[in-house]
Amino acid sequence: MTTSFKLSVLLALMVSGAAQGQIYKCQPPGGSVEFTDINRGSYCKLMDLPGVTVPAPVRRAAPAPRNAQPVAAPGEFPRVDSAEQRARDADRRGILEDELKTEMQKLAELRREFNNGEPERRGDERNYAKYQERTAALRDSISRSEKNVDALKREIANIR
Predict the structure, then answer these.
(1) pLDDT tier at 8 (50, 70, 90 boundaries)?
(2) Whole-prediction pTM value?
(3) How far apart are CA 100 and CA 123, in angstroms?
């Protein structure tokens, strides 16, 4: 920004408003001059502008998310009858068991391909480093899949 532009902004701030605010002239070492309503450190000086009032900045709290739901007190939670809850739990168990079955099939396939740490080399892996990268990626995938299986088993065990 040019100095004349900054001065015109400063003058516009001085002319407008009737609230009491403060203006600081900030000039960090080796930096440009900045006029602001925030004291940014030892390189800022409060300007003495007699007879001039500057609008104080409006500070607002962060807006609430658009789809925020009001939180109900524990006694105000809607009740679900036991038959409906059993049906929901059965649906949840079925979904989790399907996911577990799929994840276990994936784990078995990964272990078969991993071949106890010695997967078959592919034709595109002439470079040994590529083979090692694929082996490491398989090892990571097996570890992640094992963790998924464990988590799904825990989740199924938590269903009443």
Answers:
(1) low
(2) 0.49
(3) 33
